[in-house]
Amino acid sequence: MEKKIRQLLEDAKRFEADSPEAVEAFRIAYLGKKGHLNALFADFKSVPADKKKETGQQINTLKQFVTGKVEEMKSALSASSGADAIPDMTVPGKSMPVGARHPISIVRNQIIGIFTRLGYNISEGPEIEDDWHVFSALNFPPEHPARDMQDTFFIEKDPDVLLRTHTSSVQVRVMENTQPPIRTISPGIVFRNEAISARAHCIFHQVEGLYIDENVSFADLKQTLMYFAKEMFGGETETRFRPSFFPFTEPSAEMDISCRICGGKGCNICKYTGWLEILGCGMVHPNVLEHSDIDSRKYTGFAFGMGIERITMLRYEVKDLRLYFENDARFLEQFSAAF
Ligand code: DAH
Description:
This protein has 339 residues and is α+β, with helices and mostly antiparallel strands.
């Protein structure tokens, strides 16, 4: 029997486990109901009385060794699979889903980038405005149709509280607080009481620009906006200015760029004219300067305003305005390569 105990002890010492299942099998083989130790205890009855003490000690030694080894193997295996384990540096990394900026943000940032390189700063104003900043200070006559409930969302009447219909209101706020030279652009959201369709929306975005200093001329306006068009749409882009009317500028113009799709030959994007309108502009009306206490004999300036959705439409050829507001991930994720 002694020999058998010694053999079992040797086997237990040599045993190595590589999984929790192997440890459990080892434990059952030795310590289970039908295991080696119970078998030894059963045989113990037949050990001669003078050997009982010695044999009993040997069986106990074996039992203690096996019990200790089972615990040791269990904790060794759980440590190697647990948080303390050294990570495998060769495992390929988990890829994170790439988000995308909204196309309107991409284009707004590009516009801001172009004008800040020309020395313009950025100004912002409130979206909830009064009549003065949206209309009166900008030389809108009292009967102008934009002041109608049909076109403007009013929050209150008398005194008027309304949602701004253009970012030109920020011009007025800047002129109230700053003396020339002024060189600023004002990106922001605007609101108009329009039925929503592919071509019109009641919420959209504009960037307003304002440059006031001594001796600012229409040539400066043209040069600045031609530079903008080439930066935004590519160096081969042509521009043309058409006379127009805005109450806050005199003279006023609209700027077109050559159609990028057909290169000026005529296609359904440019309605077969070869040209696409991108902004309104003009020399700031003397009344507007005077309303903000800027001396119109000393200073002149130009202003311009453009719709970000319109520019984005031309850059990315997305023709339905509603797509910009629906937050459909299938649309937005197509812009993940842009920034
Ligand atoms: N505020 C005009 C609009 O919403 C755009 C505009 C036209 C702004 C001419 C200007 C400008 O500053 O000079 O349609």
